[in-house]
TrEMBL record:
SUPFAM superfamilies: Thiamin phosphate synthase. 2-[(2R,5Z)-2-carboxy-4-methylthiazol-5(2H)-ylidene]ethyl phosphate binds at residues 139-141, 168. This is Thiamine-phosphate synthase. CDD domains: TMP_TenI (cd00564). Keywords: Magnesium, Metal-binding, Thiamine biosynthesis, Transferase. The gene is thiE.
Amino acid sequence: MPAKEVIVVLLPRIFALVSSAEDLSLLPAFAELGVRGFQVRDKAASTRELVALTSAVRSRVGVFDACVVVDDRLDVALAAGADGVHLGASDLPVEAARRIADTASPGLMIGATCRDRAAVVAAQETGADYAGFGPVFATTSKSGLPDPLGVEAVSAAAGVLPLIAIGGLSASRAAEVRAAGAHGVAVIGGLWRQPDPLQAAKELVEAAG
Ligand SMILES: Cc1ncc(COP(=O)(O)OP(=O)(O)O)c(N)n1
Ligand SMILES: Cc1ncsc1CCOP(=O)(O)O
């Protein structure tokens, strides 16, 4: 397993969340612009569809040395040769995922969803490499979330694990959370629902990259 410092160096500043509803042909251009993290997140996909989607994302961005993480599913991440898995409260516990990954794919990056500093400390203790921290701002991309945590919560949680801020992120907000101590940002609407996704990617890279 690589040392944690190695993970920090490899951890991208920007993760574009990708579902099969998005235009995958844009991915190489995003990567070329400097978006070097892609998270496959598709709640509607079957297991086989997720494996195929992950492989499709890898084949489009692999040449740019970009990092591909699968949301929720360690089995899919392993089957598709992804670089990591992102786990939330209803997914496989980080500790179990770390045990499995240490045998099946040493060095696999594991991200854990956290909403406060105590959760980040717990995630670190159980083997996570980074914390997906949010929702920092209001989002329409996922329902049932708690109220936005705010930038102050990012500052309060920083310094334990690298934080990837998520929820309502745009270029100007990316600069704000980076200044508050976040390592990077994860984005759906701030990229895919913009009139010009390539321009949005460029601005995100300038702000957070
Ligand atoms: C980087 C990052 N942070 C948080 C999340 C949210 O994960 P989770 O809590 O498992 O919720 P879903 O994304 O599965 O709806 C994330 N995906 N990425
Ligand atoms: C999956 C998830 N978890 C917290 S916010 C969020 C959605 C982020 O999407 P957007 O970037 O459009 O706010």
